[in-house]
Design goal:
By secondary structure, this protein is an alpha/beta fold. The chain is 33% helix and 27% strand. The chain has a single domain, classed as P-loop containing nucleotide triphosphate hydrolases (Rossmann fold, 3-Layer(aba) Sandwich). The strands form 2 sheets. A 6-stranded mixed beta sheet has the order 6-7-8-3-9-10, sandwiched between helices.
Length: 242
Amino acid sequence: MENSGSPLIRVCELKKIYVQGKIRTPVLNGINLSVMQGEYVGIIGKSGAGKTTLVNMLGGLDDPTEGDIEIGGTHIQQLNEVEKARWRGTKVGVIFQSFQLIPGLSLIDNILLPADFTGRLRNGPNESREKAASLLETVGLADHMLKRPAEISGGQQQRVAIARALINDPEILLADEPTGRLDSATSATIFDLFDRVVDAGTTVVLVSHERSLAQRTKRIIRLAESKLIEESDGNHSGRTSV
């Protein structure tokens, strides 16, 4: 997709250093990244390269040590925690590598949590529930909606996490190893869903240690030695600068 105008995501000289006592561990060192609205970006890198750290900071879940993250005109590191939560709930869908489902809730109620938090559930509970059921059907779990997370497999929990990330029609979808526990057929279904989400105008940033997964995106960037390196286009023509 060709884009014009200002980037939706702009990351400038981003650094992250974890400090434990006197030990300082740099994870990201001077990251610069621009992503236009509607882009489908894959970030690849080895385990421990800082991919999850980058996703967490883009989603306002972790703070940079230095640098600036501007998303849709909002400098998110300047928000307090309540403001970040509200911003994230309306603008960003995050697919966590560790799922982060609520054990005591049914699958459909887990999916509905972001809608409840942002007030959409109160404004239209039936509509939201119908959408949650539709998302469960899309990821192949329509018959399991009343089960709890412990009653399904890890791969199925991943699919629930994907559906939950989409319930509020986010402007940006951040996916941390989204198909890591899925079989090839289910992975293909999920990537088809991502394609439709991008076609509808959502910006998708996917991180993975597997090059084959990132190649489903339209632009591939490699994270190595705490830096981002534009590597190549994905399965469609992409942009040429990080």
